[in-house]
Design a protein that fits this description.
The complex is a heterodimer.
Chain A: E1 6-10, H1 37-50, E2 54-58, H2 68-77, E3 81-86, H3 93-102, E4 106-110, H4 116-123, H5 128-140, E5 144-151, H6 159-168, E6 173-178, H7 183-187, H8 189-192, H9 196-212, E7 218-222, E8 242-245, E9 251-252, H10 272-278, H11 280-283, H12 301-304, H13 309-316, H14 332-342
Parallel strand pairs in A: 1-2, 1-8, 2-3, 3-4, 4-5, 5-6, 6-7
Antiparallel strand pairs in A: 8-9
Chain B: E1 26-29, E2 34-38, E3 43-48, E4 51-55, H1 57-65, H2 72-82, H3 88-100, E5 104-107
Antiparallel strand pairs in B: 1-5, 2-3, 3-4
Chain lengths: ~375, ~110
């Protein structure tokens, strides 16, 4: 059994934005009972002992936790490399200086587009100008800056502008991540899925920018897996490299695994080491023994691990099936049909998007 | 901003190549990078934004010599005193990959 390198700490699901591509769970109201500072500190110490080096502080919006600097300081004391994944709303000069003093290593700021009006529209709130201001503060304080952009049908045609903006902000890295369909993004999938022509144009822009910006800005591009021949190597393997702790203390092998009908694991009940090694949740899809055909005899089984369990569940109702993204999957038609629909000429990018609620209010049923 | 990290997908940096490395360059770890010993795994690791590079023995030895004073040629010479076979190309490729990922920076003076 491997030990994990990374912990995704989802400190809160509260968020000032309401992006329709959010991968947080739909039942946000069930996560109001957040871990305390002391409980998070214990989780960080246990993670470090388990082998974790990378701490990803995320949410929701982690800046809504008043103890964020305290948690960063604790992580630094433990020797962890700390990454803040933020909308940047609330990252004032004062707050930034506090986090810098606490030892935060790296800041990742999301933008929704390079066009202020479109960015605000996708985020569901005026936020673009605050993000740009915060990005400047991050660079002034000497941090490594990553600009994160989730790509979808409504903004993927802006990739060139987004890269120009990232360059203007002197970002060290830019991550262009095609939407992955979990949580709110799953609910909004048909309106978010881009066409093949959109993807091809965007990828040509990315290739040219990589060449032009080599050595100055690293460009990460997360592939749109609905258009891929093979599935993504989800989390680098189930219970192999990463773990996630949710705001209420649930421990997951993947941030999307809240949707799966599997036994829970919680920091309220067990230490992380025991959960990692022995919990049914972490053991059920570890390795290759669980695999059905065609994965079991596939030469790529140690490359992509059968793809994503959460995606298999969402698409087929069975988490133990081959990820239907794979062209070898017996369920591949389910994906092919969505892709066909996204490429019909009549489809102009219309379609209704459901914004996720800002502060995790419980939704009315239906 | 919970949409991507660490993604259910592993990030793939398609098509990135190593940078060219001159013998006279003086490599050192970039300021935002930390070199640590992982006692559980008994290996050295390089920590950067969202990434951990696990180093083998030789890699750790090379990094230990990357102090901004030794040139690449001197690093190769030092390694040759320790190991029977040290390919100049391999050391350059290793440093070139780390430079392209901005784990290592070169003083060319």
């Amino acid at each position: 059994m491997d030990s994990p390198f990374g912990l995704l700490a989802e400190l809160t699901y509260r968020c000032p934005l309401s992006c329709p591509y959010c991968s947080n769970p739909l039942n946000l109201g069930d996560y109001h009972d957040e871990l305390t500072t002391a409980q998070w500190q214990r989780v960080l110490a246990e993670a470090q002992e388990l082998g974790v080096w990378q701490l990803h502080l995320s949410g929701g919006e982690p800046l809504l936790r008043r103890d964020l600097a305290e948690l960063v300081a604790c992580a630094r004391e433990l020797g962890l490399y700390t990454n803040l994944i933020t909308s940047a709303l609330g990252l004032s000069q004062r707050r930034a200086e506090q986090l810098r003093a606490a030892g935060l290593d790296h800041v990742q700021i999301s933008i929704q587009s390079d066009e202020p009006a479109l960015s605000d529209r996708i985020a569901g709130t005026p936020s673009f100008h605050s993000k740009i201001e915060a990005a400047r503060i991050v660079k002034e304080l000497g941090w490594t800056l990553t600009v994160n952009v989730v790509l979808h049908r409504r903004n993927i045609d802006r990739v060139a502008g987004v890269l120009d903006l990232a360059e203007e902000l002197a970002a060290d890295r830019v991550e262009l991540a095609n939407t992955q369909y979990y949580g709110w993004a799953w609910r909004n999938r048909d309106a978010l899925l881009p066409s093949r022509a959109q993807l091809e144009r965007a990828e040509a822009v990315v290739r040219a920018a990589r060449e032009r910006l080599k050595g100055r800005m690293e460009i990460l591009y997360v592939l749109p897996d609905y258009y891929s021949r093979y599935p993504k190597p989800c989390m680098g393997g189930w219970g192999k490299r990463q773990l996630t702790v949710t705001p209420n203390g649930d421990v997951l092998p993947c941030p999307a695994a809240h949707a799966l009908p599997l036994p829970r694991a919680s920091v309220h009940e067990d230490p992380l080491a025991r959960i990692w090694a022995d919990s049914p949740l972490f053991r059920c899809f570890r390795g290759t023994d669980w695999m059905p055909e065609p994965c079991r005899s596939c030469e790529r089984r140690e490359i992509d691990f059968g793809g994503c369990r959460c995606q298999a569940f969402l698409l087929t109702g069975d988490a133990a099936r081959t990820d239907p993204v794979c062209h070898l999957s017996p369920d591949h038609d389910i994906v092919a049909e969505r892709v066909r629909a996204a490429n019909e000429e009549t489809k102009t990018g219309a379609g209704v998007l459901t914004p996720r609620p800002h502060h995790g209010r419980r939704l009315s049923p239906g | 901003m919970p949409s991507t990290r660490p993604t259910p997908s592993e990030k793939r940096t398609v098509g990135e190549r190593g940078a060219a490395v001159e013998s006279s360059s003086r490599p050192k770890p970039a300021p935002h990078i930390r070199l640590r010993f992982d006692s559980a795994r008994e290996q050295h690791v390089l920590l950067g934004p969202e990434s951990v590079v696990v180093l083998n023995h030789t890699g750790a030895d090379i990094l230990a010599l990357c102090d901004g004073h030794h040139t690449v040629a001197e690093i190769v010479a030092t390694l040759r005193e320790r190991y029977d076979r040290v390919a100049d190309d391999e050391v350059r490729h290793f440093l070139g990959r780390l430079t392209a990922k901005r784990y290592v920076v070169m003083d060319d003076g």
